[in-house]
Amino acid sequence: MTVDVVADQASLEVVDPTADKSSSTGTALAPRLTTLNGKVLGLLSNSKPNADVALNAAAQKIRETFPEMEIRHYAGSIRFEAALLQQAISECDALIGATADCGACTSWLIHDGAQAEKGGVPQVTIVARGFERDTGTSAQVFGVPELQYVVVPRVFTALTAEQATEQVLPVVEEIIEKLTADPSSVAAGDGDGEVLEVAEDEVAREAQESYTFRGAGVAEVYEQFNDFFVEQDFGDGQPLIPPTRERVEELVAAQGRPRDEVILSIPPAHGPGTLEKIAVNAAMAGVKPRELPVVIAALKAIHDCPPPMNLSVLMSTGAFAPVVVVNGPIVKALGINDGRSPLGPGKNNVVGQRIGRAIGLALRNLGQWIPGKMDLDTIGTVRKNIQVIGENSDESPWEPYQVNRGFRPDDSTVTVVHTVGEWDLGSNHGTVPRRLASIAARTPTATQVGFMTSTLGGLEGNEDGLFYLLPPETAKRFAAAGMDKRSVQRYLLHNIRPRISDVIAPFHDFRDRGLVRPEWQWMFELSPEEQRSQTIQAFLDPSTINIIVAGHGTTKEFLFGTMTPPITGKVNAIA
User: What are the residue boundaries of the UGSC-like domain, all occurrences included (predicted)?
Assistant: First the structure.
């Protein structure tokens, strides 16, 4: 369909950048109960503070109306273990979950609620205000678009236990209604009767084939195009290049693949990423045909992030963002900056910037990685303007990073690291031993996920990591002293040693709630003086610490903290 925005002289037709909507209606809700008396009500607590308090308060209030109801508690993690979730579904007649405060934990509990509905068990999820869009979109993604939920005013983690109880009690009658009444007669509400039509507005918008803008001249229609795309939330806040049919056709034709081929599902909403739709978003960033394979390879690497972190890194309330490192012949072939200031602006970085922008636009328009929708980041980060850099293999004394990842030196690859922060270490002076000691001492060790806890089941301990960018001059000095990458990794592994008091500081509340794993309990049992005077290795094994050679000039080291292990994939370059 073509949309005429303004009728006048000059015209501009552009292709719609959003994902084609599925015709599937999803799974219907499980049949509702006629009564809760004599039934088993299960409470799905996802380990976040006060979620269990709110659930228990709601259940006790429900039992005042249904005194013969049995209550069972299921203490899981942000992603319920499959066996525990299946146990709850098999043992209970109805379930209630609480999402607490996080975009990723909201989506995972909606996933768990959807599994219950598919298993024939009615459920209701308690959602904090501000997470309704995430809830509605996640329900669509997980195949139960009518999934039932109620809304409370504030996130539970910001409250005391008493406040958590007080705010959940007013929605208890709504919970009962959603478990026992015909769903068609009950709208998703905010606890005060306001209807929230997020599914129609945010998820099920009918895609257009194209949009046409007309005006008095080229500048006017270009402005109309950008204003309209910003208003529709199709852009990233910066002026876009119009994705005309001609530009899109050029990108598609160069790949030698069918335009409607689904290359991958684009996270976090898992929208269908056809070649054509990826090309539309790349066109808006100014990507050239030979650069599109890097965009596709990076999207695949982001898609391949294993659960539960695949949702956490894109949907969390924390400031996480992907950074892309490119290796192999394609770095020079495309002109991706691997020399001075590869993370900076300007002419040298134009290729990396448009590739990174295309990745972000595809995540946005095909995966709904949009602030307030499926990206629930509290503050945000400039790293969400995705950075793409090359490793400086020409000046490196070591094997290139893709070889460390199991590829050949002549393979072109992308590596995605989901970052949690960045630091300029700048050791700069001293002998090799002093320089290494300086890098280790200045490396931040604040854990973001915490493999000490069971809040994200299934983590192996290498999710909290480090990704160093060492300038060639630093790498050469280490190599001249007989050190390869592995020996640098081992040194850092054993010499990044924070005080035990600093390591456990964020986890006292977790321990109080029984969420610290048994092997780490001993640290909490030390005296305060012992906790302050003793140190501990911050990371578990060398694979947690990754090193590339980047930049040019003086010995100023740089570091990203990482939320996941690096994910590397091959680029299928075109001639």
Answer: 13-180
